[in-house]
Design goal:
heterodimer, A: 214 residues, alpha+beta, Gyrase A, domain 2, Cyclophilin, 2 domains, B: 303 residues, mainly beta, 5-stranded antiparallel beta sheet, 4 helices, elongated
Amino acid sequence: MLPPKPGQAAAQPAWRWVSERGLQLVTAAATLPRYEWLLSLKFPEIEDIIPADGSLLLVLRRGAAVSDALQAALDAPLAEALAKPGVLHEIAVRYGGAAGPDLAALAEQAGMNAAAYVDCHAAVEFTVAFLGFQPGFPYLGGLPPALHAPRRASPRVRVPAGSVAIGGSYSGIYPAAGPGGWHLIGRTPAELFDPQRAAPALLQPGDRVRFVPL
Amino acid sequence: MIRVERAGACDLVMDLGRPGWGALGVPAGGAADAAALAAANRLVGNDTAAAGLEITLSGPLLFFPAGAVVALTGARFAATRSSGAAVAWNETLLLAAGESLDLGPAQDGCRAWLAVRGGLMVPPLMGSRSTFLPAGFGGHQGRALQAGDQLAVSPASGGVRLMRAQPPAAVPDLPLRVVPGPQAGQFDDAGLAAFFGGRYRVDTASDRRGVRLKGPAVTHARRALASQGVLPGAIQVPPDGQPIILGWDGPVTGGYPVIAAVIATDLPRLAQRRPGDTVHFSTLEVEIARTLAVVDWTIEELG
């Protein structure tokens, strides 16, 4: 990691090597604009850029050096606004019942009834902060603090595909069936990931999501 | 065409992977030792990126009705040919029409790669023919081979040359070299001493997603950690203190602290550790790791 130079602005991004090909850039609230910007610069030495919670992982091609241009981009001050707002997706959800077995308990913890909880969740315009865990699994930022809930103490062995869930400060959607530790509040018929499609993931980082109760 | 008469423990169609989709939650994947698959491909006259088979722990019985030019690299497996001819590793092998190749248990490692002249013809998905087992796509129908499967082989042109490959020298029981991870500073002295002084056993629950280790618990301050991007080789420490080395098909983001990362140069050696084997670690400065040249295979024509 480069030591911070004296006199630099507080907004200066910090970056460090996390392996010989991986460079982690701390981006805080500017993760998406910085991701979009770095992508647009198309650095030939970069194989992949992986956004996460407040940081970006830049994966360099094997043996590639950091060019002066990339060095300058890493040290550039952060912008906190997206160049353009992401695509808005309306995702149909059947809330509660067998589709959302944790809805009642979550609503009770939040001190509201299930209908109010659903209204609150469906009123939000979420932003896809990043994808991870499974191909196409979106971490949706913008969950009202009243709806935050720590992950389940013991994960489920099998969560059905399309499950809409709450994990910490995020809402998410399980693209495929599998184990999972988030609270399930509903299910969508939307197909989140299909490797055969030209755009395999329905939701891209920076896209906006609104849930529509069925 | 190749017919699978008996499947091995986990035979996966692999090429060099699909880098560039991390932002969608898809890891690069591909052969656990890309250089070994590339060498096998060169031995049969293929492009190094052609699809072959990654064979783990116990191999399949394959029938070649029209014959084939094949090559095996990686760990030695018990192997016989129906013709009775010897099965050499790291060499071009000519299989006659109607021959079969029987690969038994691994004898000195975990994984071998089989290349077939022309390359396995499965549809590319997201730029690669590699199987991504956790999400069930790529390779042959998104899964490991099963008895009765038929694998199409792409046509090849030009003459066949007989070649031999020399893998990089292997030194047994060398530590895996690691560079410090982003959360190395969150581990106390006891945790760091346990990790760097300890020997860990590879657990049976290991696969291409992660190599799970059992051994001295690595203690750390349990701070809430934001999900961060991770690469194969990153060593995560969950609350129970038993480290997990993320594998080739591991997740692209993780929420456990990463104490260290196995350098890419040593991942092929990790690919050969099997359940029950031990691993230990030594540190390397990242600046030095970045200067390490890729160790290449040498390939010569047989005179």
